Amino acid sequence: DGGITQSPKYLFRKEGQNVTLSCEQNLNHDAMYWYRQDPGQGLRLIYYSQIVNDFQKGDIAEGYSVSREKKESFPLTVTSAQKNPTAFYLCASSMTGASGGQYFGPGTRLLVL
Amino acid sequence: QKEVEQNSGPLSVPEGAIASLNCTYSDRGSQSFFWYRQYSGKSPELIMSIYSNGDKEDGRFTAQLNKASQYVSLLIRDSQPSDSATYLCAPCNQGGKLIFGQGTELSVKP
């Protein structure tokens, strides 16, 4: 059963703490993406990767980091430099170039304690 | 000018009516266009794609594209309460990235 999984569903971060959000896909997609969604707003692109061991900054990369060591996995780290991390984080994947659309995981909701 | 513009709504229609959702985009080089449905608290789900001018039908959904006017729309026939959600328009720009609109909230009243 192909799809995208994200974990955890909810994540709590303390001040000054780095946290890592997991994203795994078994769709054999080359490209993976991380978005942030704030209440009542659209999706904003954080980072994306078109191929293993390569990734590019999106529109709001400051305070975030990623890695792409395997085709199936694209974890996102929210660092302590991200001063307003509370949001709904969405991972997506697509064939190269996104011309066939992107498919989303269920999301991780990050809250600050 | 925003890259992708949608009316935020809410758009309220009675059950059984046609819901019409509209979207304009600024990148004339966009070639692929997608509609996503997002239920409250859930992630977006791809429901329609359209690549050529004209209409594309899939069940109760029809996507319409007019590249000259930089306009794309989604019609939902025989609207059901289960269609109540936010609908996101997402053209794929020349750089190969999807640019999402802020979405239109649709409410279908029984």
**Largest beta sheet of chain B, briefly?**
5 strands, antiparallel
Q: Determine the number of helices of chain B (DSSP H or I, runs of at least 4 residues).
A: 0
- Report Rg of chain B: 13 Å
Oligomeric nature of the chains: heterodimer
Helix content of chain B: under 10%
Order of helices and strands of chain A: EEEEEEEEEEE
Strand content of chain A: over 45%
Euclidean distance between termini CA atoms of chain A: 36 Å
Average pLDDT confidence of chain A is: 93
Q: Which structural class is indicated by helix and strand composition of chain A?
A: mainly beta
Write up this protein.
- The complex is a heterodimer of chains A (113) and B (110).
- Chain A has 113 residues and is mostly beta strands.
- In chain A, 0% of the residues lie in helices and 50% in strands.
- Chain A has no helices and 11 strands.
- In chain A, a hairpin with a 2-residue loop joins strand 5 and strand 6 (54-57).
- Chain A is globular, with a radius of gyration of 13 Å.
- The termini of chain A are far apart.
- The mean pLDDT of chain A is 93.
- Chain B is mainly β and 110 residues long.
- In chain B, the strands form 2 sheets. Chain B has a 5-stranded antiparallel sheet with strand order 1-3-8-7-6, with no helix packed on it.
- In chain B, strand 4 and strand 5 form a beta hairpin.
- Classes of the chains: A mainly beta (113), B mainly beta (110).
- The A-B interface holds A 35, 40-43, 45, 48, 90, 97-107 and B 31-32, 34, 42-46, 49, 88, 90, 92, 96-98, 100-103.
Please describe the topology of this protein.
The complex is a heterodimer of chains A (about 110) and B (about 110).
Chain A lengths: L3 E4 L2 E4 L5 E7 L5 E7 L5 E9 L2 E4 L6 E3 L9 E3 L8 E8 L8 E2 L3 E5 L1
Parallel strand pairs in A: 2-11
Antiparallel strand pairs in A: 1-3, 3-8, 4-5, 4-9, 5-6, 7-8, 9-10, 9-11
Chain B lengths: L3 E2 L5 E4 L4 E7 L6 E7 L6 E6 L3 E5 L2 E6 L4 E6 L8 E8 L11 E6 L1
Parallel strand pairs in B: 2-10
Antiparallel strand pairs in B: 1-3, 3-8, 4-5, 4-9, 6-7, 7-8, 9-10
